[in-house]
Amino acid sequence: MTQEPMRERRTATARELADRFGVSQRTVLRMVAEERAVYEGRSRQRRDRIVELHRQGLKGYEIARELSVSAGLVSIRLREARSAGVDLTRYADTGEGEISRRR
Length: 103
Fold this sequence. Notes:
two-stranded antiparallel ribbon, elongated, 2 strands, mainly alpha
């Protein structure tokens, strides 16, 4: 029984790695691809974090900077959340332990 290798996220593109090692891009993708379940879990966490930061009152570009993603991705994820019926109402701590809504 063989053990599945521990895979880390790559920092170079498949094309760059293929050129460096003299193999096809497909070979690179097959050998170093992130497991689908790992990718989906990380993506779900990022999506939830985007929604949470939006609720805290951060602007799209601030969320993007915080999570090291593009502002466009933040916009897309918030639009998807709205269309899925996720409550994106912003809130702020009033200091009395209550959550107040603001526009």
